[in-house]
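Support request, please re-run this one:
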Amino acid sequence: MSSGQVRPVRLGRRSIAALALVSGVGVVAFGWPLLAGPDSGLSAHAKDAPWLFAALLPLLLGVVVATIADVGLDAKAIAMLGVLAAAGAALRPLGAGTAGIEPMFFLMVLSGRVLGPGFGFVLGAVSMFASALLTGGVGPWMPFQMLAMGWVCMGAGLLPGPIRGRAELYMLGAYGAVSSILYGTVMNLQGWPYIGGLATGVSFVPGDPVGENLARFVAYCLATSLGWDLPRAVVTVVLSVTLGPAVLKALRRATRRAAFETPVTFEPSQR
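Re-run finished. Output below.
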């Protein structure tokens, strides 16, 4: 079988339901402050991340179990998940977040492309968890990082399938650039409502119309994080285009040899 015949791990009904549930929890966790009233006590909820983390772990496990039930993933798939998560965790400290240089993004995008949205979502979340333990970056932001990176990998797995060659590399580079910026934007939303002492034009005002707060949020992103998000996007594009052929080939070869979706058959022994 050629590398072009390798297909991403498919999504079944249970996998889709589990991903929808996890993503729904994530959307609520990120966006609820925009709908909060002036007397909602936002500061009292600023440290609720441990509860989100406690809820996120069983939901992630549910995605894994649902994918296994739908497709029949075995120990080889779990081993690949562990290897790729370890590789992503090891890549992240190389840039140490300096000026947004985070080389792990290109590996997450390419892995999600080859292995599919369900497998990719779990990979992105587990990689962020492992990198947080490796770098000592455990904090209230960690469950949000896990969700956001899971979405990045899931989106890569949902890209059009038949494209190969240079066109695929350009598609992955473009997706990596957009997702790198969106990742930073979504992570800004996680902390922005709780930051005090900001200028009036970029600060969150509880109870104000959503449109007005979003306009302030855009101004906040432009003034603070764009200098990190753009370099992250550039690094992701460069690595995807230059290292993409070798990494995609290796991932597809490993997926083909693991034969995740090949049914097991037994033949009678001949004596």
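The radius of gyration is 20 Å. The mean pLDDT is 79.
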